[in-house]
Design a protein that fits this description.
By secondary structure, the chain is an all-alpha fold. Helices cover about 55% and strands about 0% of the residues.
Length: about 260
Amino acid sequence: MMRSNPPRRPAAPPAPSPGRSAAQRQREIATLLMRLDAMLKQSAELAQTARERVSVGGLARYRRFSRRVRDFFALAALAQERLDAAPEEMEDLIDPMTTALERLHARMVVQFVEGSAGFFSSFARVKALPIGTHEMCGVELRGVLEIRKFLDDPLYEGERGQALRAETDRIAALIRRVMDRIPPLPDFGDEPSIGPRGTLNSPLKGPNAHMPPGRSAARPAPPRPAGMQPAAPPAPTPSTEVRSLSLDQFEDDEDE
């Protein structure tokens, strides 16, 4: 008599990979804070460079400054995520690191507002604006409005925050004034496009050229190649006739 094999025990699930230790997380957050501090110093230098000779390449230099500011806030958001996910072993360090991050954040907001105000106060008086100023200023206007949202945080309450909000609104007004002075670039596509301020631009070519936005011309049928015979009309479908049959007719067919 054969012995039945005992049922196999299910395989144990793989052991989870050990996570990073509290010391590793602490070093990571500290590294992010040091990088933010370095970016803060770099952006200050870029802001100073943008204010030099504003009329000659000033807007391009300002855009390098604003790009560095956007990179700073993206990295600051990552540092905040790391702080929110910090283990309990770092409880004594979370508050000091959070305070350091908030100070860096506030310093960058102030630096951006002051740098943008200094630049656009001069740029708004430039007589000859370069081609594409309307589109580039539209991008920078959206960046200023995003920074303006930061100032609604309770961190910026008080007279200092109120002054920063008023200055940011003044910067946005200066940018809009510059955009009103120079028309947007023509739309060389076939379909209407949306400009920096949300307006629809009519294309210069194609069937929809010079037509009001929201309307499109009917596209003509493609021309028939030369020498090509017209397609023959489809053959009529044969009509089906339904007749009533009786059993006598079936019997007559079998006799034949």
